[in-house]
Amino acid sequence: xxxxxxxxxxxxxxxxxxxxxxxxxxxxxxxxxxxxxxxxxxxxxxxxxxxxxxxxxxxxxxxxxxxxxxxxxxxxxxxxxxxxxxxxxxxxxxxxxxxxxxxxxxxxxxxxxxxxxxxxxxxxxxxxxxxxxxxxxxxxxxxxxxxxxxxxxxxxxxxxxxxxxxxxxxxxxxxxxxxxxxxxxxxxxxxxxxxxxxxxxxxxxxxxxxxxxxxxxxxxxxxxxxxxxxxxxxxxxxxxxxxxxxxxxxxxxxxxxxxxxxxxxxxxxxxxxxxxxxxxxxxxxxxxxxxxxxxxxxxxxxxxxxxxxxxxxxxxxxxxxxxxxxxxxxxxxxxxxxxxxxxxxxxxxxxxxxxxxxxxxxxxxxxxxxxxxxxxxxxxxxxxxxxxxxxxxxxxxx
Length: 398
Prior knowledge:
8-stranded parallel barrel, 2 domains, globular, alpha/beta, TIM Barrel, 3-stranded antiparallel sheet, 41% helix
């Protein structure tokens, strides 16, 4: 049983440069340096890469994401419980964050029906009628045993009117309270399948951490209100949700500019589902600590590499005999070993290794970028790093 007097996570800001922060997030499964990029492992796998590679010096990912909605539908909670929780089921000993399923349910569009109680929808796996609520989302995440749990929220579309966003915010606030109450009960009754007991760092409780989510679409006043109401309930960390859902980029930055610096300074700040390498840098400059995005893995599978000079499409005929690596300034094992010509050949031949190697490189690029960001904040030259990084990407026409 966890000790309620101790905290499930410990977060300390160790350096600040403007709004940009470098910190240490201590979870029950190890230390994570922030700002951090978290690879997305939707169905209990980060697509196209083995966990050994994620743990290797090349990548050294300290935390990955799992997806409550997808894992709940398949293989199902009973299977994961029987296999001892998500960490044991997938063979990953480092930290795991699970999202609540709110975003996936939102993206089902017309296939879902939202009420005060929760959301009813048809499973994309077998068409069965399913119901997800704050309570169910907390129960599923306790069974998964993730180290960081997200509250169940309602995501308004990016271009939502003030009235639509207001209704969504109200529902999200009520659901956040219900999530908190059910989460606390589950922590008290031993439902958490990821608990690791007394081997725990002294100052931590061994319990799961719960993060709240700030909504309000592109409306600043609603974002302020959502933040105040979320902080009032009290969480271990705070996320900005409902961005990257179809709104203009400028709207996203207005919201992050407005909200991030007002979030509790002693708690991690998480911008959900964002983004490109330049988005990460821009969000760090506004005070964000945590990110996740499917881009490095998804784009890797479709033949696109992220490089310090911008995006590179491996399908282009110009690489047919090009013996250079994807990125001259990348030290990852793919760039040390393979040429653009070879990677193009693999992709054109439909070889699965093409997606595997591009995914590895892309994750290496994202994770290495975050390492360099942390270093620049600690040494006080983040503005210079940011300017140079963006200039190099712009010079390539990306």
